[in-house]
Input
Amino acid sequence: MSQNDMTIANQTFPNTRADINSALQALASNNSGTSAPSTQFANQFFYKTGDNTLYIRNEGNDADIPVMVLDQTNDTVEFFKSDSVRTALIEFTDGDDALAIADGGALTTAGNLSIGGSNNELRFYEGSNYVGFEAPALSADKIWVLPPADGTSGQALVTNGSGTLSFSTVGGIPARPNVKPIVINGDMQISTRGSSASGQTGNGFVCDRFGFQMSGGTFGTWTMSQVDDRPTGTGFPKAWKWDCTTADGSLAAGHFGLAHYRMEGRDLQMLKKGTSSAQKVTVSFHTKSAKTGTYILELFDTDNNRFISKSYTISQANTWEQKVIVFDADTTGTIANDTGGSLALSWWLGAGSTYSGGTLQTSWGGATQANRAVGVVNLADSTSNNWYLSGVQIEVGEFTASTLPPFQHEGLQDSQMRCARYFQKMTAGNNNFVGRGFSSDGGGRGATIIDSPCAMRGNPTVTTSAASTFKFQIGTTTSGNGTSFIVKTIIAQAVMNEGQGFNGSQNFVVWLDIAASGLSNGAFTRGVSNGGSTVELSAEL
Output
């Protein structure tokens, strides 16, 4: 420690030498001492040993400005705040750039920019005011991934629930061209035919509107059922389950198995398919399986024999996963505006080389069979395999998992009525009526009118579970008891065309050819289900 008044007075030589040495020591030690030198000069350094602070005298020579504090224990330096920094570069000891502050204020860091502490925040100043962000109390790290581009006017940032942000319309529900969901019974709540069907090797239905199709005994044997196992947090009441009971480990060329959903052309006009304004289609669903791997979803245009296929992956066994698949717009092939089947969704669950031997057709084109299901797993290769489906949703336009509109839940009655357009089942016990009618002649023919709760897609095919127990009964004028005749054949014919019935209802005449004669011409009759038989009306696509 040394300080000096920096004035060499006239004096004898030994004293002069001592005074010069004292002044040089003061310069070398930055005028260090427990207090400031008694005599100071403008821009003079002074190191205060009491607080280890280096000061510089101001230009007016009337105050000391702190420059830095030296940590004499750890040999580090802390700089005092300055009014401005033009250009600065802080380096690690190995020479790598740590932090650079460029002219204009641009801040560049070689690694993560971190602000620590429980109450520290990141602030952005505008004048004396600022906006800031402060981290909440956390038990784990959290990162949000920003979208790669700006959204449109009125959109807001929304999350997919996993940290990925995207822009979506304010309110979260883009305008739909359809009031009701395009997919009927997408939540699998309706199963008119029954909740389970075992020993299935061909074609059929369990959950309404969703069919299964197999190459007749060459894709294993399955139990199809409506089950309570469904994805949590979705509100879906049921799911459709495929359960393999007999395996087929090696599929021949023409063997296949798939689930399908078929749609009327008049319900699809908003897709504008076959025009320059054709729309993309987003299909989403929830699925799980004991068998992981590649699966195929196909969109088939039956009006024009064109299709497009997309693959998806079940990544984790026995775990519900949501899949969101976008199909490109198709400017070729107009959809017929009628009640015929125009588009079909097919979930391929296995396929031989006839359907999988080519290259997967991921853009719209003509129906090349070998390109429909390339790469699909063989779900039939083990009796441990199963496959579940629920929450099937179709939206017009392109969406991601984070921008997808919410599932349109329908009430049970509404969903039942929409399903009844395609299939109805009448179940009765002994001598319960399914219709009323008249005899047309004195021979073996009569008619029963069956009331339908809604207009069906077309004249239905009428079947009975037991023709021998479905009877045609003629009441007597004396006792009200009647004579029953066993039905030979059943033929349905619509009395009213679609839309002509009251409140959208429709009536059908069921002509009953019976095994015995004796019907009086014009006699009042009634169709009777005897012994618990059922009558089914089907107008499925």
Summary: The CA atoms of residues 212 and 259 lie 4 Å apart. Residues 83-87, 476-488, 493-505 have pLDDT under 50 and may be disordered. The chain has four domains: 13-79, 88-133, 196-401+409-417, 423-538. The first strand starts at residue 45 and ends at 48.
